[in-house]
Design brief:
The structure holds 2 protein chains of 2 kinds.
Chain A: E1 15-20, H1 24-35, E2 38-44, E3 50-57, E4 60-65, H2 70-76, H3 84-87, E5 92-97, H4 101-110, E6 114-121, E7 126-132, E8 138-144, H5 150-156, E9 160-161, H6 166-175
Parallel strand pairs in A: 1-4, 5-8
Antiparallel strand pairs in A: 2-3, 3-4, 6-7, 7-8
Chain B: E1 15-21, H1 24-35, E2 38-44, E3 50-57, E4 60-66, H2 75-78, E5 83-88, H3 92-102, E6 105-112, E7 117-123, E8 129-135, H4 141-148, E9 153-154
Parallel strand pairs in B: 1-4, 5-8
Antiparallel strand pairs in B: 2-3, 3-4, 6-7, 7-8
Helix pairs in contact in B: 1-3
Classes of the chains: A alpha/beta, B alpha/beta.
């Protein structure tokens, strides 16, 4: 059941990754340059720290917050997210679909990202490359090239697909009236 | 095999969070129970280890894989996370109650926020952190600035 009020900045996305980056201002510039991000909102503390920002990359929204800001100080000790450089890595990466992986990959490296995995065609039908951005977040940039059945991918990797057909069921569910929202 | 495909597959947002979980099979069970997630695909090795899985929560996809040394690292190994997952739901109170019942830890209790959302923050048993929200009120940028006064500059 849709909530009554409609979010002005976030029309229809239920999941939004919330990235922790200690120099968020520079990060926003990087995401603009590398991924063509558009800045939607920025809340800055008097010392310039970004306590909250929202950007759009294509049809996706991302939130960014400086973990050293006043805003997060109270919660830091209770398990708030930390900058990947403080953490020594990240347990959440991003799979980012773009129209032309090769050009976005080049642009990201030119803007200061480091190559993690070179761009190559994968057996699941995507051409992908992996980067680590200057702030330690990991992105797999991908372009879908061909349709491949999950079962065929699994066969090549000595794996099995556990829920074949469920994608179709999810598509059907999405088309159903009132779908696409949590009903909890 | 189709050769003419959309380079950005339909039905999902362009940027999808990809979570690394130690014991991903158990994590999937937890996300089903706690968040009402639907598992749409799982690529499992003969020993049950998950190379890749797709979950749907509401209208969005979350990707998930087991921990593979040298390739990815779990929150347990790192001692935390660097990306929270913000999730809009229709009823945050009911959603959080169910999640806590299933074993999530309440990091920040339910509270109405000045920007128009009612939220709570949950830590799951696998170390990932979720900010759960229900939108209650539209707040314009100008009104946001009014509400926060001098403590923030809103643009």
């Amino acid at each position: 059941m849709p909530a009554k009020a409609k979010h002005p900045r976030d029309a229809a996305q239920s999941i939004t990754p919330f990235l922790s980056i200690s120099d968020a201002t520079r990060a926003i510039d990087f995401y603009k340059k590398a991924f063509g991000a558009v800045e939607l909102l920025r809340m800055e503390e008097p010392d310039g720290k970004v306590s909250h920002a929202q950007i759009a990359i294509g049809n996706s929204r991302l939130m960014i917050s400086d973990p050293t800001s006043e805003h997060t100080a109270e919660y830091r000790t209770r398990g708030w997210a930390r900058d990947p450089r403080m953490l020594g890595g990240t347990p959440v990466s991003f799979y980012l679909y773009v129209a032309d992986v090769d050009s976005v990959f080049r642009r990201a490296l030119a803007a200061g990202a480091k190559q993690r995995d070179p761009v190559e065609d994968k057996e699941w039908g995507d051409r992908i490359g992996g980067i680590v951005d200057p702030f330690g977040h990991v992105w797999f940039i991908a372009t879908r090239q061909r349709a491949v059945r999950d079962e065929d991918v699994a066969a090549k990797r000595n794996a099995r697909v556990v829920v074949p057909g469920a994608r179709k069921a999810a598509r059907r569910a999405r088309r159903a009236p009132g779908a696409g929202r949590m009903s909890s | 095999m189709a050769t003419n495909v959309n380079p950005i597959p339909e039905g999902q947002h362009q940027a999808t969070p990809y979570l690394c979980a130690r014991d991903a099979a158990r994590a999937i069970d937890f996300y089903k129970k706690a968040f009402g997630a639907i598992e749409t695909m799982r690529m499992a090795a003969p020993d049950g280890k998950i190379g890749h899985a797709d979950l749907k929560i509401g209208d969005a996809v979350i990707m998930l894989a087991d921990e593979y040394p040298g390739h990815n690292r779990s929150p347990q190994e790192l001692g935390g996370t660097s990306v929270m997952i913000h999730l809009y739901v229709a009823n945050v109170d009911a959603f959080c109650a169910r999640a806590v019942e299933a074993g999530a830890k309440l990091i920040r209790p339910l509270e109405d926020q000045f920007y128009g959302d009612r939220i709570c923050v949950l830590g799951d048993p696998f170390g990932h952190v979720w900010m759960i929200a229900t939108h209650k009120e539209d707040v314009s940028t100008a009104e946001l600035q009014k509400r926060v006064g001098d403590s923030y500059r809103v643009s």
